[in-house]
Amino acid sequence: MTAFGIRGTFLDFIDDPWKHVGREKDAARFLVDGLLVVEDGRIADFGTYDGVAARHAGLAVTTIRDRLILPGFIDGHIHFPQTRVIGAFGEHLLPWLQKWIFPEEIKYKDRAYARDGARRFFDNLLASGTTTCQAFTTSSPVATEELFDEAGRRDVRLIAGLTGIDRLAPPDYVDSADNFYRDSKRLIERYHRRGRNLYAITPRFALGASPDLLAACERLKREHPDCWVNTHISETVDECRGVQDAYPDSGDYLAVYERYGLVGPKFSGGHGVWLSDGEFRRMSESGAAVVFCPCSNLFLGSGLFRIGQATDPRHRVRMALGSDVGGGNRFSMLNVLDDAYKVGMVNNGTVAEPAEAERNRISPYRGFWSITLGAAEALYLDEMIGNFAPGKEADLVVLDWKGGPLAQSWRQSLVVDEAGPSTLEQAADLLFGLMMVGDDRAIDETWVMGRRLFKKM
Amino acid sequence: MTAFGIRGTFLDFIDDPWKHVGREKDAARFLVDGLLVVEDGRIADFGTYDGVAARHAGLAVTTIRDRLILPGFIDGHIHFPQTRVIGAFGEHLLPWLQKWIFPEEIKYKDRAYARDGARRFFDNLLASGTTTCQAFTTSSPVATEELFDEAGRRDVRLIAGLTGIDRLAPPDYVDSADNFYRDSKRLIERYHRRGRNLYAITPRFALGASPDLLAACERLKREHPDCWVNTHISETVDECRGVQDAYPDSGDYLAVYERYGLVGPKFSGGHGVWLSDGEFRRMSESGAAVVFCPCSNLFLGSGLFRIGQATDPRHRVRMALGSDVGGGNRFSMLNVLDDAYKVGMVNNGTVAEPAEAERNRISPYRGFWSITLGAAEALYLDEMIGNFAPGKEADLVVLDWKGGPLAQSWRQSLVVDEAGPSTLEQAADLLFGLMMVGDDRAIDETWVMGRRLFKKM
After folding, report:
1. Consecutive H or E run containing B246
2. Among B residues 117-146, those touching chain A with beta carbons less than 8 Å apart
3. Cα A447 from Cα A243, distance rounded (Å)
4. Which CATH architecture describes the domain A4-72+387-455?
């Protein structure tokens, strides 16, 4: 592929805004008239149009007007086989799994159904501006294969893995620890680092995993240390209680995963609503990540994630955000930011310490960092994706700041006129409008490895 | 206007689903093939197509296919002059008013701005399927006049009133109790029961109202007992504390309004997040209504409304739902139901009594009743609107159950095939999909007084 350029207005991040309290904009980068040079799917150059264009004589340039161009969004926690059962009524986590989720996921043993599901899954992600996700599959290798194959066809960066569960699910859904080990090995060989696919050893959650299954995970991680580990942690009070009963020798939920050598860099625990200060501290020290899933935590009534605790500089935990479809009821990471903001604000009705309350506020800087560079850092993908640094893969989303319901365009007209944003502050205010008033309608284009894979109709 | 018919699939309510625990569908009515006869803007007849058509030979009939037709939605609490400042960053109620809201509302002293705002306001409502609202205006009569005039031009049923505040706002925003009394009188004469306009005596909230202002409200209500009373109550902890300081002789927040003779039928208190059991009981006995505004309560971090308490049969409070734009970040009552469901589910993480937990669940029956007949009953409008009973005004919304983000259509295909719903249960499940996965994109048409005022493009 020869090089080409994209000219437009760019916003990305170079640091964590939580490190710049009171000066969050220092973590962001804004180019009113920027040029991104793409070569073989990667970012070859990036900067002001005048500066970059001078270095690339004769470059073919696509100009994108009246839009904000951001790095593609990253969804840190999502269940691909729950696409169809999104928004299922009336239950908290454990009964919801039994009533709605397992019956749907069982269908993914059928290859045709799984293939169709994978196709629809990526269609939804790309229409939402999400270019990378870390996904759960099912206990069936068929579903995992179809997901990786579809990601490969689209050349989308993906972290996923066979999702192990050997108890607490219907007999035709669970599988044995031995089978999980054998199938995971085979899938790692076949998919890990093939194209943009990355493999995560994936015990579904401690409550659904016997000691044998977790021991299989430990062995897999030891044999394949380059692999990711993805699971759930401390999502609901009932689940935490169950884990305590199932693993009475472990002091807390995190200790179960620690005992099996899973916690460290490239480990993700989804939810973490009920993590203690001590668990946050140990996750921080180990380099593990928590994935905050606000839509899901509200939809399933799991509780309010303590953003201000997770981001405490004394024990800062790597943090990504997740839609958690279908526990979360929206694919769009903009909707996820809507609910994340609300969780932070409701937390602040009860938080006493002003500094913690301040950290609970999901500003547009914190929000969009969390679904781009912050997520990439949390998931140890920041050498590949997350911002427009040369060398990274050219995944990007083109945002129409007037996108969303009718109310959006007049709202945004308080910030900018037809000429669009000329300052970072204006751009950030437009982005806040997108997360609170907008939705997937704001996604005008989604580009993956320098190719436009979605264009709004 | 000669009579005409609308043929399609109808769903409305004839009772309160909270009265039918375990058999909520007994509160609803579903006609797969129904016919609604409209004459002079009112419902002249309604029932199965075969039954009704036989009574109206030669009737011109519009057939609406592949849609669910519901009564128009009712928004019980919204601020018309906050349309543009929707989704403003970072503050809880009291600082948010000072920083974002008053500066915008002051602009509505200008008639041209207010007229443009009123036009946009109704455009947003109708695009969201909302055919009636109870609205706050500003302290300026200009804004109130423009709102009523615009409602009159569209023939939309509206409750509104000059919004009195004589302290706790910028000097150029507050107005005196005397002016409020005089202007309110004039506006009542000019607008109350003119066309579909209804007047609400509207003290903004107790904290912003001096005893003189509340005394003026009392006098207005005594002189115009047919008028509504609309205000805020117990929205945030800080506000409740402030009211206690301002009215130390009143035992609680409700008691302030009681003392001035405002609490009773046609009284609405918006929010009520922090109402005590005793206040719920007194509201119940008096026939007053609370308006639950979940988007706003989350967005401003005000707290979690105790749905299960308000709906306790021992002291059932009339309840409507409100978008509370701009404290709420979405105009669509579908989005309001999304957040209402989440508030109920999060409440259930802490509620001990199973019956209360059950009442906290916003099923589709409870949700859609709450924004149609339930709201009409709460606001004492149920002789005019709320369901398809003959004699009522023909306000209706035509819902596309596939409307929303891409994920919606596959989700709904789990419930029905292309033929659409044939049972009430299926229709209710589609409606749950609309409230949790859908949004204003599901609004295909909005009809007001038998005229179609909105058609999705």
Report:
1. helix B237-246
2. 120, 123-124, 127-128
3. 41
4. Roll (2.30)
Query: Is residue B221's pLDDT more than 70?
Result: yes
Q: What's the number of CA atoms in the CB half-sphere (13 Å) around residue A438?
A: 28
Is the CATH number of domain A73-378 3.10.20.600? Answer: no
**Cα(A414)–Cα(A410) distance, integer angstroms:** 7
The interface pTM score, or ipTM, of the predicted complex is: 0.98
Q: What is the pLDDT of residue B1?
A: 57
C-alpha B204/C-alpha B230 separation (Å) is: 8
Distance separating alpha carbons of residues A372 and A385, to the nearest angstrom: 8
Q: A197 - beta bridge partners?
A: A158
Test A341 with B410 for CB contact under 8 angstroms: no
Chain A from 334 to 393: CB within 8 A of any B CB: 338-339, 341-342, 344-349, 361, 363-364
Interface test with B, best of A25, A82, A342 (most B CBs within 10 A): A342
Q: What is the pLDDT of residue B146?
A: 98
Place of tokens 């000072």: B98
Lowest-confidence range among A140-154, B85-99, B125-139, B282-296?
Answer: B85-99
Provide the β-strand partners of residue A443.
Answer: A399
CB A288 within 8 A of CB A264: yes
- At residue B108 the predicted structure's pLDDT band, cuts being 50, 70 and 90, is very high
Give dist(CA A132, CA A157) in Å, integer. 5
Q: Tell me which residue of B424, B344, B216, B313 sits closest to B19, measured CA to CA.
A: B313
Interface membership of A75 toward B (CB under 8 Å): no
Facing residue for B436 by CB, picked from A87, A414, A432: A87
Is residue B374 a contact partner of residue A327, using CB atoms and an 8 Å limit?
no
A-proximal residues of B, 401-430, CB under 8 Å: 405-407, 410-411, 413-414, 429
pTM listed for this prediction:
0.98
Within 8 A of A301 by CB-CB distance, chain B residues are 342, 344-349
Q: Do domains B4-72+387-455 and B73-378 have the same CATH topology?
A: no
Contact A85 B411 (CB under 8 A): yes
For residue B141, which amino acid is it? P
Whether the CB of A89 is below 8 Å from some CB of chain B: the reply is yes
pLDDT digits (tens, 9 = 90+) for B349-398: 888 899 999 999 999 999 999 999 999 999 999 999 999 999 999 999 99
Beta-bridge partners for B318: B289
- Per-residue pLDDT at B177: 98
CB count within 10 Å of CB A49 equals 18
Q: How far apart are CA B264 and CA B248, in angstroms?
A: 22
The CA distance from A354 to A347, in Å, is 12
Residue with tokens 């279908």: A326
Residue pLDDT, tens place only, A93-108: 999 999 999 999 999 9
Q: Which residue on chain B is closest to A410 by alpha carbon?
A: B84
Give the residue extent of every domain in chain B.
4-72+387-455, 73-378
On the question of pLDDT at A197 being above 70, the answer is yes
Task: Assess B303–A contact: CB distance below 8 Å, yes or no.
Answer: yes
- Is there a contact between B298 and A127 if contact means CB atoms under 8 Å apart? no
Spell out which residues of chain A touch residue B100, defining contact as CB-CB under 8 Å: none
Residues ≥6 apart with Cβ < 8 Å to A290: A233, A268, A269, A270, A271, A272, A275, A280, A283, A310, A317, A318, A319, A320, A378
Distance from C-alpha of A65 to C-alpha of A408, rounded to nearest angstrom: 19
Helix axes A111-127, A141-154, angle to 10 degrees: 40
- Give the chain B residue whose CA is nearest to the CA of A337: B299
Sheet holding B396-399, edge to edge: B42-48, B28-39, B4-13, B60-71, B396-399, B443-448, B451-455
